Amino acid sequence: MGEVSAEEPEQRETRAEPGEPVIATHALTKRYRGGQLAVDGLDLTVPAGSVFGFLGPNGSGKTTTIRMLMGLIEPTSGTARVLGQPMPRATRAVLPHVGALIEGPALYGFLSGRDNLIRYDSADPAADPRTRRVRVASALDRVGLTAAAGKKAKAYSLGMKQRLGLAAALLQPRRLLVLDEPTNGLDPQGMREIRALVRELASDGTTVFLSSHLLDEIAQVCTHAAVMAQGRLITQGPVAELSAGARGRLVVTTPDPAEAARILKEQGVADVVVTDDRVMGEPPDRDLAEVNAALVTAGVRVRGFMVERASLEDAFVALTGEGFDVAG
Ligand SMILES: Nc1ncnc2c1ncn2[C@@H]1O[C@H](COP(=O)(O)OP(=O)(O)OP(=O)(O)O)[C@@H](O)[C@H]1O
């Protein structure tokens, strides 16, 4: 047989080189007709197998980026590659390998959950009608909707509608899932369910790219993250490294907080804040044993002395100099 391959040309085209990122953009820019610069020179790298959180407050350019990645709108300048292919030129070859949930799923309320999926599957020319029932049943099972499959979609809760949208994205095996604010509008239980589902999908090797304005959500499910603000990329990388980049906080618990605060400042602790019996600040670049000894020598009664690990939120504040606006 030699060099002959049984693969469809389309599949061969979208096979990325080993180690090649699933999404890579270079200087990607979108200026809307009204003049609004929504995405400004974005260099984004999404490694294969990652759960990648695309984080930013409302209006920071996340949806615009996702639309460009999916070939729905043209960039003003710069390039985007998805699964090793240039977008939007290769949209037709790339999209069959991508499951997307963007701005809420389009569902027919008068059809049952199962019939909505049958409709989606029938609209896919590559889907074999003989195996349709099996595909639909397994997608329903995947998202935990088997018991509710016969109910009309209009009777579904928002969380169930999101899960049905995910089931539609999962009818075919996908190499990449793109989820735009998948937990938006859900109650805490619904959010937990979607997070658990994302983790499960990622555990079989699918790369998941999800946008969110909720820092906590990204910290809980993502291996990697990128932070956007006003159309620009502030930082990206493994979540553990992003948090490690920010220094932890020194927390001293004591019945003598005023005296402790004074000594800590003398010892080079910055941004000292006192709340009740806790004194917190940014640890200095020196042996903390000496700082502790200085407190004790000055007669401060120390009940607790620890460095709290930095969170992703600390990293964000350190990078932008402002708090993360979680409103909206
Ligand atoms: N079709 C459009 N025409 C003009 N401006 C737009 C258009 N779509 C978005 N914008 C503007 O571009 C900027 C980025 O919007 P975008 O929707 O990409 O942000 P986002 O981070 O996804 O926010 P959200 O979570 O609110 O959707 C905003 O200032 C928005 O008002």
Automatic annotation (TrEMBL):
Q: What is the lineage of its organism?
A: Bacteria, Bacillati, Actinomycetota, Actinomycetes, Kitasatosporales
- Residues of the region (Disordered) are 1-20
Q: Name one Pfam family in it.
A: ABC_tran
Gene3D superfamilies on file = P-loop containing nucleotide triphosphate hydrolases
Task: Tell me which family the UniProt entry assigns to this protein.
Answer: Belongs to the ABC transporter superfamily.
UniProt-listed SMART domains: AAA
Name the chain's protein.
ABC-2 type transport system ATP-binding protein
UniProt keyword list: ATP-binding, Nucleotide-binding, Transport
Q: Can you give the residue ranges of the ABC transporter domain?
A: 23-255
